[in-house]
Every structure is written in C-alpha cells, then in structure tokens.
C-alpha cells in the first residue's frame, strides 16, 4: 500500500511535487520559471492527494519562487513552463526586473546577517582568548619561553556574494585545509557543493574560497 503519510514542511512538499512533476519543478540547480496560475493547476492535480493540502502547496510555492535558484532562472527571453514542462508565455521584462530586484535584496539581507554574525563571533572569540590567557597566567608558576609558530599565509580569499554562482569551481575551507569543489546549488542559508570525489555537501558561503 502506498505511503499516504501527510507531509510536514515546505521542503518535503517541494521534494514531493518535484518527484510528481519533474519537468516543471526541481530540487537542485537552476529552476524554470513557472506558468502564471500554476497553483490552481497544482491544486487541481493533487486535489485527491492525502499527503498535501492547498495551504501547504501555497506556502511551498511561495518558498520555491523566492529561492535564489528560482530567481536566477527568471531571465529575459525564457519561457514559463506548465506542470508537464510545456512552454507557456515568454517572461515579461517587468517580471525579470522584479526577480532581479528581489534577488539583490535577498542577497543584501544575507550579507548583512553574515556580517553581524562574523562580528558577534569575533567578539565571542576575543572574550574566550582573554579567559584562556588569564587561566594560563594564573596556572604558571615559572616563566616559560614559548615559540609561536606562524600559520602559513593563506593564498585563497573568501568569495564575494556575486561570485557565488552555480557551476563555479571553488575551494571549501574544511578547517584543516581547503578542498576543491564545484557549486551545484545556492540556497538562502547555505550552498551545496560537489567535491572532486563526488560527495555533495551543504556549506556556509563564508567557507568558500577562490
């Protein structure tokens, strides 16, 4: 018997409709612009489906069409597609301009949030270093001479926001070193990359190097 357990979140709903309508939806890579009125078509096709409700579909569609990979796919001259992958109307310039504006605003918010997180992290690390220094000083009974090894100068740099694009070859900072990889998907909170060994993993954009 087919599993009819109800889906619980938008990520699951998007994965489900991508499985049901693979020529229209995708869970990785650049997404195709959707036909205007696609929600009605989707609700009608899945009307008897116990796994998903109309409210869930509406929320999932809103998340899908506001994602970076969807907004990247809204380009001049590109056709919208219906549930079966058939071409519909060509995108109008006002829709292309709107997608570009939404993408830039979303990226700006992420840059601001990452900057705030970096400042908070630096402040926290600074306090931790002070605490460790006080602990070491209080525990030392004899003066000791320590040789501080300098870390080798990094020859890589953190990618700029506009450099984070699907298909770009990058270096992933793994803590102990960098590993070559290729960007395969861009989300709001992370970036999916494929390592040279074929492994696909999600990382934060700040861990990507050029």
From TrEMBL:
GO terms for biological process: post-transcriptional regulation of gene expression. It is found in: Cytoplasm. SMART domains: ProQ (SM00945). One of its GO terms (cellular component) is cytosol. Residues 121-130 have a biased composition (Basic and acidic residues). Residues 5-119 form the ProQ/FinO domain. The keyword Cell membrane does not apply. Its main location: cytoplasm. One of its GO terms (molecular function) is RNA strand-exchange activity. Residues 121-144 are annotated as: Disordered. Keywords: Chaperone, Cytoplasm, RNA-binding. InterPro entries: ProQ, ProQ/FinO, ProQ/FinO_sf, ProQ_C. RNA chaperone with significant RNA binding, RNA strand exchange and RNA duplexing activities. Belongs to the ProQ family. This is RNA chaperone ProQ. The gene is proQ.
